[in-house]
């Protein structure tokens, strides 16, 4: 079965629009949670800025918010493996130094 055949068509409601998306079946829950998060952000921004800003600008604010959250998560994950590697190397160095001193 080809990769395209393993995908399914789902419909996501993003704010006031239905978006058809073809997704891998095993990732459908992720797409639905993403749609929920996007809607949560859009509702928050529209509730706060609907009278002051055009709709397009409000959508951009929500996109910036979502992008910032992603960047923070990526940075957190990057440093996590680095921190673990540094702790492991530090432990090995300390062990070697203490063995040498004996």
Features:
alpha+beta; 102 residues
Q: What percent strand?
A: 15-25%
H/E series, N to C?
Answer: EEHH
List segments where confidence is low: pLDDT < 50 over at least 5 consecutive residues. Answer: none
Mean of pLDDT: 87
Question: Which term fits the overall shape?
Answer: elongated
Structure description:
5% of the residues are buried. The protein has helices at residues 28-49, 55-101, and strands at residues 7-14, 17-24. Helix 1 crosses helix 2 (55-101). It contains two helices and two strands, in the order E-E-H-H. The protein is α+β, with helices and mostly antiparallel strands. A two-stranded antiparallel ribbon has the order 1-2. Strand 1 (7-14) and strand 2 (17-24) form a beta hairpin. It is 68% helix and 16% strand.
Task: Summarize the helices and strands and which ones pair or pack.
Elements: E1 7-14, E2 17-24, H1 28-49, H2 55-101
Antiparallel strand pairs: 1-2
Short synopsis of the structure:
By secondary structure, this protein is an alpha+beta fold.
């Amino acid at each position: 079965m080809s990769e395209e055949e393993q995908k399914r068509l789902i419909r996501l409601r993003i704010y006031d629009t239905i978006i058809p998306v073809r997704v891998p079946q095993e990732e459908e829950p992720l797409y639905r949670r993403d749609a929920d998060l996007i809607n949560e952000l859009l509702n928050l921004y529209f509730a706060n800025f609907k009278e002051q800003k055009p709709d397009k600008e409000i959508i951009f604010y929500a996109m910036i918010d979502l992008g910032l959250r992603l960047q923070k998560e990526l940075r957190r994950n990057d440093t996590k493996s680095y921190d673990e590697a540094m702790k492991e190397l530090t432990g090995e160095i300390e062990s070697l130094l203490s063995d040498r001193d004996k």
